[in-house]
Amino acid sequence: MPSFGKAVTRVELYDAVYRRVGLSRSESASLVELVLTEITDSMARGETVKLSSFGTFTVRKKAKRMGRNPKTGIAAPIPPRGVVVFKASAVMKQRINADRLQEHSEMTLTETDMKGAALT
Fold first, then answer.
1. Spatial separation of the C-alpha atoms in residues 39 and 56, rounded to whole Å
2. By CB atoms within 10 Å of each CB, which of 2, 87, 94, 111 scores lowest?
3. Helices (H), 1-120
C-alpha cells in the first residue's frame, strides 16, 4: 500500500522527468518549472486549469468577513481573498483508492467464504 504523508519535492519531479524522458538534468528542471509556472500564471489570471485524468485547479473568491482575534477576542475584518481549490478527476480518485477497493473486495470475498464454510 502506498505511504501517505510523504511529500514529493520539485527536485524529485526533476529527477523523475530526467529518468523517464531522457532529457538532461537542467532540461528536466526547466521543463518542470515551465509547467508549474504556466499553471500558476493561468490561475493568477483567474483561469481554471483542467488536466485530463488528473484534476481541476480553480481559484475561489472568498468575500470579506468578520473574524475574531483568538488571543484577545476582539472582532477584526478579514479582507477578501482568493483560495486555490483542487478537485481530483474520477480517474485520479479510482487510482488513489484502487488498493483500498481491492482489499475491500478481498475481505468481502473472504467473509463470504467463511460464512459459506460455517453453513456446511
1. 11
2. 2
3. 10-21, 25-44, 90-119
Please state the rounded mean pLDDT for residues 75-87.
Answer: 96
Cα 94 to Cα 55: distance, rounded to the nearest angstrom: 12
CA atoms within 13 A on the CB side of 70: 0
Query: Pairing state of beta strands 75-78 and 65-68?
Result: antiparallel
* Whether residue 101 has pLDDT greater than 70: no
Task: Specify the DSSP class assigned to residue 35.
Answer: H
pTM of the complete model:
0.69
3-state SS class at 97: helix
Say if CB 85 and CB 74 are below 8 A apart: no
How many CB atoms lie under 10 A from the CB of residue 103?
A: 11
Which DSSP state fits 6? P
- What would you report as the CA-atom Rg of the chain, rounded to the nearest whole angstrom? 23
